[in-house]
């Protein structure tokens, strides 16, 4: 059994984006391919276009140049099959948690997975907390019934959501939980998550990350999540995109990216002939991160870099050449390749977890 | 049922940790032939590691003939790993003699450990059997 399915989850060719009010491009000539079934981390400094790239993939904004294809088609056509959770987790403030989930169910009738959505929203204890009292015999669970009934403090973990809570009363992390519940409930083939873990406490982070990966294990879901916390991604992702300078600078399986680099330590000496990502020395001693394409000569102490060392070295040195361990494939010619603002019905917007203020118009009005 | 504990800072590859912990459970009798290993989903939910890592570890265990995957049912233990300490008497006494010699030459505990690890890494690199 291998989770790598056939096909491509996300692909960009010559993708560019510039916002009217800003000078220059946020994205420029960005090309990459993400195979289906991967857990992909999108990392990079603030302002390097991670959110823009995800918004382009979600069809919330149009590219200035180039194309992006999602699940083999345009973002608009793929809309039913992917979920997007925006960084700000925009949700209707006046609704209760239960009503928000109900909205997700109504807008995704064909694919809604209620049990999963509720488990994410109310936590793994929800069955215990709400189950016995409400009973599930009529196919109804807590949210259909008395929304204000409190299951009691000993049954629900501190900070857990209750069906009757209104969105506007929730903390950032609790909103994240609701937004992720909507995304999970849709049972998407691809999840585009913009900084999904940023607001979460360590317990919720671990729980939701586990749930996310569990979902991927069970259904082969492709996950793309942006983050600037590098350490939390180690061991989680099996694909990595490092953004910088408006494009993807490193792309591929982290293990292969790591194998393509060597950390050298030794007496200061000429490194010409090697592709040097970074080097610094203290007079006699030199430490350098090089690409392993030409094995170093004798006399160096070599070590394998950690993922964090690799990424930080590239972040500090924007001049380091780009590296893809898998070449991005050229998109098929003439097959719906044009940028599109979306033809789906407006309702699906909210249910993808896309509740951005701009909706489908896709013009230049999405603020970065 | 075995529960895995992943140490992200250990420097040991995650799938190797799963393989090692499974073998340890087999040695200790925590897992016995016929027992089911947790599903990839269960491991991933509990540890927040990449699903492919679990599958890679299970494939490795299967390759070693310790477990077998039954389609649609899960992964099951085929045989246990019992090796009584008595089997190693000769090896143990040689190692003890070697250690005595090392002490005599003035090596300290950490020197010995470093030396042993370096030879161990050379002779049985990580990930090999």
Automatic annotation (TrEMBL), chain B:
Keyword hit for DNA-binding: yes
Ranges annotated as spanning the membrane: none
Gene3D superfamilies: Winged helix-like DNA-binding domain superfamily/Winged helix DNA-binding domain
Segments forming domain HTH gntR-type: 12-80
Alphabetically ordered keywords of this record: DNA-binding, Transcription, Transcription regulation
CDD domains given in the database record: WHTH_GntR
Name of the molecule in the record: GntR family transcriptional regulator
Species the sequence originates in: Streptomyces tauricus
Lineage of producing organism: Bacteria, Bacillati, Actinomycetota, Actinomycetes, Kitasatosporales
